[in-house]
Predict the 3D structure of the following.
Amino acid sequence: MKISELSAETGVSVPSIKYYLREGLLPAGVAVATNQADYGEAHIRRLRLIRALIDVGELPVASVRNVLAAVDSERTSLHDAFGSVMHSLDAGSHVVDADVDAAVVEVRRWIRHRKWAVEATAPATRMLAELIVTLRRFGFPAQMNEFDRYADQIFPSCEFGVEYARAMPDRTVAVETMVVGTVVYERAFAEIRRLALEAASARAHVRARATRPRGTIRRSGVAPVLRGPIGRDAPG
Amino acid sequence: MKISELSAETGVSVPSIKYYLREGLLPAGVAVATNQADYGEAHIRRLRLIRALIDVGELPVASVRNVLAAVDSERTSLHDAFGSVMHSLDAGSHVVDADVDAAVVEVRRWIRHRKWAVEATAPATRMLAELIVTLRRFGFPAQMNEFDRYADQIFPSCEFGVEYARAMPDRTVAVETMVVGTVVYERAFAEIRRLALEAASARAHVRARATRPRGTIRRSGVAPVLRGPIGRDAPG
DNA sequence: CGTAAATAGATAGTGCTACTATCCACTTGT
DNA sequence: ACAAGTGGATAGTAGCACTATCTATTTACG
């Protein structure tokens, strides 16, 4: 397969493919001549994975490189490769904050209570702690036991996902499946939650309207995105 | 409160605050002199909201402006304001793709089946459709009924969140609460799912090891992020 | 009172990221 | 034969989120 065919197959422009080659995200094709190389199925899969990580997972190119390095490191067990991926996903600078440190302790205790085998270095722990602190600063009670029900429900589906990926014939395909499943299902669950929130809001809205005199609330649908009082420009 | 105090209170640098003022994210303080303005509690809250949307929600500044415009638009009902926020969250360019169009129909049918009152224009619908298509391209079965269990579980918690926000005394505070709750809890759920995935992977790993001869798999913890065979530089 | 520091507001500049564009020396399909 | 495509290298660009600098004030402090 030529680079133009690879481009057509995946919808990624030729210059972008060249860029990914340069950046070491995509392995070079088999050189056929000084200016001719052959790409295969693995390149298509890899390119799709790159786009999924960038578009869906919103990972920077540098993180994608790290993730792919873990995927490709044959010496690494499936679990360890997956761990590397998780750590790359949550990479990012952390604040130094006493409240967060305290929340980290809470999160760790909760994880222990759940009997989850999670690395001490897992960045998700501190991420979650930061989120807890943010919620509290906005007045939310935000206790860890709020998440028990969710954890009870989500864990089996995670186990299923892990088994599904591990059942793949090829190690690389297994890791890729795990990575894609992690990133894409995560977004899918988020979108479903947004739909549920809109539905819940609609219900509450209708209920509230029923208890008020008619006409006190706009009857139209979702408001257009307006420039409010602090908008930069005057409405055209 | 002076701008330097506002900065100290929120941890946002004075130049950044000026930038947000310029960009219309933060309303100006009350002018006391040609070069003196007074900021209040609302500015602290607003600034925290801006940081939450940017840091946690990873929204671009332009989207933050739209979200805040909806928050501030007093003419808009709580539900409509929230709808605007949801739409801003999911803003982004969409691909033209027959597979996605077909998936949109599936998603819409599923939403109807759930009896969720969701605007036809809700971007989350198409987002979810795109994710479904991505999953299928990677070989996942990805049927909508997979999400029924999750939806059953998440909807009550969304209703609770909506009620919690609507119970706020002030309309602006109510919308702010809804926005923060949406964005921050979404991330929190994602982090918990990542922890659950790691735990599930660890379990599967241990189970698999028990059925293999000793020493065939590395015993260490999570692999360091290595430069694999396609890494750009040689290992230092 | 005098002076260093801070402030609002304006304009210009910076650092980073993820591409694009252009070149060149070749090779391939028609 | 020759336009179109290719690999490889180098340079340029667009957009974003700040950051820096400037001016004309005004205030806080010794």
The radius of gyration of chain A is 23 Å. Residues 13, 15-16, 19, 23, 33-36, 54, 60-62 of chain A lie near DNA strand C (CB under 10 Å from a C1'). Chain A touches chain B through 111 residues (CB under 8 Å).
